[in-house]
Specification:
four-stranded antiparallel sheet; 12 helices; OB fold (Dihydrolipoamide Acetyltransferase, E2P); alpha+beta; Chloramphenicol Acetyltransferase
């Protein structure tokens, strides 16, 4: 018996949760075949079989495990069955081959399959009311399911009156049911980190708004040609990320974070992008955004987003980042205060673009406007720095020419 244990997948990962069993109890597995899936606080990964053999599970789905815990045993001495062992088929007696007396006594009592006979007993169905479609008129399970039962089952006979009332379409029913589910490991980790940020940082948020007219015109004019050449469209996120990266290099305090009694500054912009997944929010970073072209950023973002939604991000792809951008606008958010992604000191929140009346050169005009929010750690970033950062980003977005000329 070979013991299968939780492997070490990273220095910061000490516990995992078993979320899916791929190979069932007693099933034969091959070498390197996936046995189950684990969820850590950063990513989901599969556990491969170290040897071939028959598997015996020692844990169940939902169990929290530590690195090194034994999850299963594999009997390496067992041999894989090349084909399932089948018992010799027994000849089905037809009405012609049975004694006449037996046929007259119960014409269909012995021509129902075992599964069909069991279902007939549960539904109190009579074989005389069911037309068999199997070989020689044999009643199959499908025949029973497709034939309505004329006799009420025991469960129907004892059904409470309240359930019968609910069948009345005119009656109003109010649910009072509750259900309890265990928090996923990722959701528990997110909860701990958000509370930690709230309690251990001096977080404030400053707001501004950006006129999206120039960006919308740029995308409308060049998107088709850009997609033909590079295979991707000009996305909002790539333009915002490039603008932030350019300003971050001129304002290193916004790109720094605290480590004990020291500040760590970065001469590069690794921008984490918030991606919503079925299991929670993940923020994988795209590295050296300041040196990337827009199409390179868009392609890498698509790869990370696809992996995130499939739960296939590696620990390396989840690690790092000096600044974060989150876009609540894709869900219709008009304004919000994003929370910091520790240990980073700042996060930019994008929102929905809405047409609003604004004053331009003394005249009221309708423009597509977006509110921007910058949450920052006041221990690292002063209020004046946060406002200046947001104003510079706004200027680059309202005049994209400056962005491409690095002005």
């Amino acid at each position: 018996m070979i013991e299968i244990k939780v492997p070490s997948i990273g220095e910061s990962v000490t516990e995992v949760t078993l979320i899916k069993i791929i190979k069932q109890e007693g099933e034969h597995v091959k070498l390197d075949e996936a046995l189950c899936e684990f969820e850590s606080d950063k990513a989901t990964f599969e556990l491969p079989a170290e040897v071939a053999g028959k598997i015996h599970w020692l844990v169940k789905v939902g169990d929290d495990l530590k690195v090194g815990d034994t999850v299963a045993q594999i009997d390496a001495s067992s041999q894989a069955q090349t084909a399932p062992v089948q018992e010799p088929a027994k000849p089905v007696e037809t009405q012609e081959s049975k004694p006449l007396a037996a046929v007259q006594a119960n014409p269909k009592s012995d021509i129902a399959s075992p599964a069909a006979a069991k279902l007939m007993r549960e539904q109190n169905s009579s074989s005389d009311q069911i037309k068999g479609t199997g070989k020689d008129g044999r009643i199959t399970k499908a025949d029973v399911l497709l034939t309505p039962s004329t006799q009420p089952s025991s469960s129907q006979e004892h059904k409470p009156e309240t359930q019968q009332i609910s069948l009345n379409p005119q009656a109003k029913t109010y649910s009072r049911t509750e259900r309890r589910e265990k928090l996923s490991r990722m959701r528990r980790t997110i909860a701990k980190r958000l509370v930690s940020v709230k309690n251990e940082t001096a977080m404030l948020t400053t707001f501004n708004e950006v006129d999206m007219t120039a960006i919308l015109e740029l995308r409308s004019k060049y998107n088709e040609a850009y997609q033909t050449k590079y295979g991707v469209k000009i996305g909002f996120m790539s333009l915002f990320a490039k603008a932030c990266a350019q300003v971050l290099l001129t304002m290193p305090e916004v790109n720094a974070f605290i480590d004990g009694d020291e500040l760590i500054y970065h001469d590069y912009a690794d921008i984490s992008i918030a991606i919503s997944t079925p299991t929670g929010l993940v923020v994988p970073p795209i590295k050296n955004v300041e040196s990337m072209e827009i199409h390179e950023f868009e392609k890498q973002l698509k790869v990370l987003a696809d992996k995130a939604r499939l739960g296939k991000l590696s620990l390396e792809e989840m690690s790092g980042g000096t600044f974060t951008i989150t876009n609540g606008g894709v869900f219709g958010s008009l304004m919000s205060t994003p929370i910091l992604n520790e240990p980073q000191s700042a996060i930019l929140g994008m929102h929905a673009t809405k047409e609003r009346p604004v004053v331009v050169n003394g005249a009221i005009v309708i423009r597509p406007m977006m509110y921007l929010a910058l949450s920052y750690d006041h221990r690292v970033i002063d209020g004046s720095s946060s406002v200046t950062f947001l104003v510079r980003v706004k200027e680059l977005l309202e005049d994209p020419t400056k962005l491409f000329l690095h002005l």
